[in-house]
């Protein structure tokens, strides 16, 4: 599987992007969105991650996000994040398109990261639209902007549209490049459409996922493995001087 994977990556000769989802960050210990343990068990994400929930009880929603921020900030990138950063540095990968709101790609060293669902390490002002990036959860909850208005997490909530610029960029990248789909079940549209878009435009699709997904059928290579586990032995190969 490793040699086949490397062969396909070489064949892309740099015309490759990654599409990542919850599975890649689960290997860093970040609970998936629908995680079943803990404090917040009695709430469903659909009850907290909506504009309506925030309007009704901003304090509750912010407490949940502060808790999730804490999880993200204490997690560390795993070999899959690191491998993508090395591949970008070596000119083998153009960009990472992610459905994740964590910052593990950036912390692994990836530079060109497109966040389709926003970033949990950013807050956005409801009044002046100012975006503030943070390294720890806000102390005062809910946080207030310099302009006096309340800040909200800069993430896409249920019922909200994806950021237009990011989505357009992702679409055009998948038109011109092969796609490495990692840890996403690819069932949530419009992100689910991206691998198909790549395929229809004559590009390759490579999948790394422990489960069969709707992408598996169209994949040129589909590896049934957890992302972190698959990429671990690849790190020294990718790092090797002279590779590819
Ligand atoms: Zn403001």
Automatic annotation (TrEMBL):
Binding positions for Zn(2+) per the UniProt entry: 125, 128, 145, 147
Alphabetical UniProt keywords: Cytoplasm, Hydrolase, Metal-binding, NAD, Transcription, Transcription regulation, Transferase, Zinc
Residues holding substrate: 65, 68
Compartment(s): Cytoplasm
One Pfam family, short name: SIR2
Recorded GO CC terms: cytoplasm
Domain of life: Archaea
Cofactor note (record): Binds 1 zinc ion per subunit.
Coiled coil: none
Ligand binding (NAD(+)): 21-40, 99-102, 183-185, 209-211, 227
Cofactor section: Zn(2+)
One term of GO molecular function: histone deacetylase activity, NAD-dependent
Active site (UniProt): 117 (proton acceptor)
Keyword Transferase included in the entry's annotation: yes
Catalytic activity, as annotated: N(6)-acetyl-L-lysyl-[protein] + NAD(+) + H2O = 2''-O-acetyl-ADP-D-ribose + nicotinamide + L-lysyl-[protein]; N(6)-succinyl-L-lysyl-[protein] + NAD(+) + H2O = 2''-O-succinyl-ADP-D-ribose + nicotinamide + L-lysyl-[protein]
PROSITE patterns: SIRTUIN
Residue span(s) of domain Deacetylase sirtuin-type: 1-241
EC code: 2.3.1.286
Record remark: domains: 2 residues (Tyr-65 and Arg-68) present in a large hydrophobic pocket are probably involved in substrate specificity. They are important for desuccinylation activity, but dispensable for deacetylation activity.
Record function comment: NAD-dependent lysine deacetylase and desuccinylase that specifically removes acetyl and succinyl groups on target proteins. Modulates the activities of several proteins which are inactive in their acylated form. Deacetylates the N-terminal lysine residue of Alba, the major archaeal chromatin protein and that, in turn, increases Alba's DNA binding affinity, thereby repressing transcription.
Family classification: Belongs to the sirtuin family. Class III subfamily.
Full protein name: NAD-dependent protein deacylase
Taxonomic classification: Archaea, Methanobacteriati, Methanobacteriota, Archaeoglobi, Archaeoglobales
Gene: cobB
